[in-house]
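ok so for the tutorial part 2 we go from a plain amino acid sequence to predicted structure tokens. step 1 is just haveing the sequence, like this:
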Amino acid sequence: MTEFDASSYDSLVAAVKSKPADELVADIQASGGVDETLDLVFAGMVEAFLPERAAGQEAVVQYEVAAPDGPHPYWMRVAGGTCTIEPGTVDGPKATMRMAMGDFLRLVTGALNPMSAVMTGKLKIAGDMFFLQTMQNWFDRPTS
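step 2 — the prediction. this is what the tokens look like for a chain of 144 residues:
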């Protein structure tokens, strides 16, 4: 088992490319835990937010990331040109995304196509799926 590093997008991409999902999650659990990793990943999403692409949009999205120790909920609010993400649940999200930890990491790094994930059941969506397709363009995803 090796130390898992989610401190930068490039290190996250390298980790996701180098291991199968079960090994990734085992490394995460041994290297600070799921919450710490998700906090880093979601903080990276906030930094990658492009407010000009979300101009005039307001929404709340619920994420439910499943790990061996149980679900890890986070919610994201986009409003007034800002993006905030917090752990926990929120009432009345525009959409909810549910997926396993390994699949979530593959999704945010571009290693998993969102439509393929939905079609294969790796990503379950409740609410406005068309909104989520638009929302993915609100974030800069560097090419590695």
